[in-house]
Amino acid sequence: MTGSTDKTKDLIESFIEKISNSNLEIKYFYQENQGKMTALNNLITNASSDLLIECDSDDYLKSNAIKIINSKYEEVKDKENIYALAFLKYDQNLCNIGSTFKTDNYETNMFNLYFKDGLLGDKSLVFVTNIRKQYLYKLEKNERFSTEARLYNEMDKKHNVICFNYPIMICEYLKEGYSQNIAKIFKENPYGYYEYFKQILNFDMKDVLFSKRLYAIKHYILFSYLTKNKNILKNIKGTFNKFLVIILYIPGIVKSLFYKKKDC
Predict the structure, then answer these.
(1) Which pTM value belongs to this model?
(2) Among 45, 80, 224, 226, whose CB has the most other CB atoms within 10 angstroms?
């Protein structure tokens, strides 16, 4: 599905015409541009395959990606509690983005991967369709974007991911893409990010890396400021978290003032 104003629609229609006599099928859905998350929420109801992948405009699959995905799915498809297969993502230079998983066939959840294991960098998720269709991206106050991690946190409550150290996707990080414009996205979508970091600080923080705890608290203060939310202590769980918020609040507000004035 796309809300593009370029010639994407014409290009896809030409593809459909070219393969009309083959076994390959392309389904194309168009809507007026309402943002990435709304497009995915509307599109997910049309998914009918066993697996699905969400690709950004700066992502594309490696030539052997489907073969790898099928092979690994065959190994784990009988596991009822898996909502996604997680794979590596490479940059244009074919270098791994961030770190690798602890091991292959590593079963965990996304929160543990990033906040307890200290995983770095984007990864490629291949969702199990019948589970993914049970969840939608939540958008706040007419915002157009919400971090995918907020959805993952909801899915983590009942299901796991299983990880493989195989690259299936290349990311080009286009100048106009989300990854290159994260500061602008923060400013335009503060309420969704506020809800995300509030969500993080209400989880069980046992075994969470201290650096990740600080990361969550600093961003919670930032988005509390950007959303003018004053009940900062009431909305988080844990005495230690509240203590850290108190001692970091003033320097956090000073930094937030600078951040808000900064041109993006």
Answers:
(1) 0.87
(2) 224
